[in-house]
Amino acid sequence: MVLETASDLAGYFDTDAHGTAATITIDGSGSSIDVIFNKEYFAIDPGLGMEVEGTQPVATGRSSDMTNVEIGDTITINSVTYNIINVQPDGVGTTTLILEQQ
Which end of the chain is more exposed for a tag (fewer CB within 10 A), N or C? Predict the structure, then answer.
């Protein structure tokens, strides 16, 4: 069940609020969308008594702006192009893209 209206989501991702302008290329066709761009922290314990730490770039946006997005499509944010390596829709109106810099 969607909790926010389309207008609510548009305001949340607006570049005058929290959002960042991006160009997403799906099936070779580019379009402008607004996303929240973060570099998420992660730590992995490989079982050797120490952790490997790093960051992973992610972009979260309205699912309606990411219809038909697939692994291997690209998104450009702040003049940097990223490959989309995972697509994680939340089922309530937003989708998070796990990214890898080209």
Answer: N
Quick one: average pLDDT of 26-48?
92
Domain boundaries, the chain: 6-101
57 close to 42: Cβ distance less than 8 angstroms: no
As assigned by CATH, the class of the 6-101 domain is mainly beta
Confidence of residue 3 (pLDDT cuts 50, 70, 90): low
| Alpha carbon distance 31, 5 (integer Å) | 22
The yes-or-no verdict on residue 28 having pLDDT over 60 is yes
What region does 78 belong to: left with phi over 0, alpha with psi -120 to 50, or beta? Answer: left
